[in-house]
Amino acid sequence: MLKGFYLTLMMGPAVAVPVPQSVLDALVSVRVTSASGKRSGFELSFNLSNQSPLHTMFLLAGNTLLNIMRVIIVVTVNGTPEVLMDGVITNHQVGPSSQPGHSTVTLTGEDLSVVMDWIDFTGIPYPCMPPEARVGVALLKYMLLGIIPLVIPSVLIDVPIPIERIPTQRGTDLEYINYLADQVGYVFYIDPGPEPGQSFAYWGPEVKFGVPQPALNINMDAFTNVESLSFKFDNQGGTLPILFIQEPMSKVPIPIPIPPITPLNPPLGALMPIPTKFPRITETAKYNPIQGALIGLAKASQLGDCVSGTGTINVLRYGRVLKARKLVGVRGAGLAFDGLYYVKSVTHDIKRGEYKQSFELSRNGLISITPRVPA
């Protein structure tokens, strides 16, 4: 098995191809950020001679076909490739370097969802289409970029009757897709991979269960695989959302407390703080009680995390790439903080001979409900 890590950088107008060796030689650092509820981004830093022709290539990248200068970043750790980013360059910055006669060129960009935010399609009709069908149709136009729709039907199957109303789009595709997701308590993000040039556009509930990633070990001598890890417990973070359902006869709103623990957001800790915040969920009053309760549960599952953790790892010591939006185990932090966590965000920092990740974890209680976590 191959040991260590290897970086593959691909760039090109609309279709990315491996960059020449001269570009890799000039590459100083790579940073990629993935987070729950946010758009993923990247930053590439190059150290170039003032006479290098690469200056011209990078500056002309903003004038390519449809302004799409695509970047794909793949890292191979111990023989296993992972696509960290599939996006487009949005900004160029040139600054002085510490070496005489050289400049630092920094390219920043975001994932392919930024392409969905370029054109305003306000007014496009979607007759007889529930929200998930509208999302699927809006995403079809981006399949040429390798984006595959992954749409999970919502609990609210609302098929509008054309003689009553025809839904029309508001804003760009990205704005409208996020609007539809917010209406049913869903999330939307672009997940790159598993192959370079391929991505999944996920529209569905934020799922906080599944097969955990190998554990993060702290204070375990030779088995320690994290450089730093600290936790915080917010005893004022207890949240109990209040759902309002409208009684059909009298039109009187009825408040119903919704626990943040749902099948999609199971308890990861046994001890939860007493609720001190009672946010109102009012958008569900127009639905029947069952539909409103299901949508309220989906939105309540996004609240209630009271334990957070931050840390850094050396990827080679950890043995694999830590991924955001998945579970991971923690060992050696003590009775209160050991157990499973949801990985909210991950930042990859890659330099020549060095690959580190900083991360943020969260869960909804103290003391693990599982006696063991995968090693």
List the helices and strands and how they pair.
Layout: E1 5-13, E2 17-18, H1 21-26, E3 27-35, E4 41-49, H2 54-60, E5 69-77, E6 80-96, E7 102-111, H3 131-140, E8 147-151, H4 173-183, E9 187-192, E10 199-204, E11 213-217, E12 228-233, E13 242-246, E14 253-257, E15 269-271, E16 280-281, H5 289-300, E17 307-314, H6 315-318, E18 327-331, E19 339-351, E20 354-363, E21 366-368
Parallel strand pairs: 8-10, 11-18, 13-16
Antiparallel strand pairs: 1-2, 1-5, 3-4, 3-19, 4-7, 5-6, 6-7, 9-10, 12-17, 13-14, 15-21, 17-20, 18-19, 19-20
Account of the 3D structure:
- With 375 residues, the chain is mostly beta strands.
- It has 4 domains: 5-111, Phage tail proteins - horseshoe like beta roll fold (Roll); 119-204, Phage tail protein beta-alpha-beta fold, CATH 3.55.50; 213-234 and 306-346 and 355-368, Phage tail proteins - horseshoe like beta roll fold (Roll), CATH 2.30.300.10; 242-297, no CATH class.
- Helices cover 13% and strands 39% of the residues.
- Strands 1, 2, 3, 4, 5, 6, 7, 11, 12, 17, 18, 19 and 20 form a 13-stranded mixed β-sheet that branches. It has a 3-stranded mixed β-sheet with strand order 8-10-9, with helices on one face. The protein has a 3-stranded mixed β-sheet with strand order 14-13-16, covered by helices on one side.
- The two termini are 20 Å apart.
